[in-house]
């Protein structure tokens, strides 16, 4: 059980024409975690997921799912993973119940062991079980894709941008179900552009940029890497030009009396920043600080890469 849920070593993919989508990517997804896989558009995330699902052939390297090498044991590897794709893809003329029954059959799940209605209840689609799938809303279709990915009870679930176009209430329902699955022991791999979601949900995060792995750390440690901090200072009089000081990385006016100051916590502390404001002859009325978050780290790492 100490073996990784997904193990990727030196994975590379070069498309016809020379496009290098993945370049020697190596990392492990620990069992039982919610693992974030982040990166800008075109970074190689979807290529990696498609290699795991068997939709794309890798150029080099190896990958294993739940201990099964995707080349040596492709059937076992595919049976160990459920993929929720970024695109909404299913037959519009099938009902949700028919869709789940069909895919359970394709995975070889005996009729007596199928959990179609249980899965529809879990994703709040029980009342739509016999409606045509084309009549479902965008959020309902997303939830149906999650149920479809779970018909064979895989130990690993990959969610590729699952909340794109989903309203807040449905997003919360979806994450509640994902947490429930994770509590039952399902390993979840999540890609998303909502970085606040990744920061809240994920135990560990890997970042891919230009086909290369540029970060792979526990979420708290990754967020702790951010060196910039921001403070908003309300002063006691109107100012036309913000003051300058060596300890300010950046300073901007946010109104006639509000200064937004960015500084490096590796070089100075908040007390020194406020002292510099007072040294400019300004009285301080109020102070608001903003801690660095995953977005700051993400932008810093991807821009550097």
From TrEMBL:
Pfam families: ABC_tran (PF00005). It comes from the Bacteria. Gene3D superfamilies: P-loop containing nucleotide triphosphate hydrolases (3.40.50.300). GO terms for molecular function: ATP binding; ATP hydrolysis activity. Residues 6-235 form the ABC transporter domain. SUPFAM superfamilies: P-loop containing nucleoside triphosphate hydrolases (SSF52540). Keywords: ATP-binding, Nodulation, Nucleotide-binding, Transport. Belongs to the ABC transporter superfamily. PANTHER family: ABC TRANSPORTER ATP-BINDING PROTEIN, ABC TRANSPORTER ATP-BINDING PROTEIN NATA. This is ATP-binding cassette domain-containing protein. The lineage of its organism: Bacteria, Pseudomonadati, Pseudomonadota, Alphaproteobacteria, Sphingomonadales.
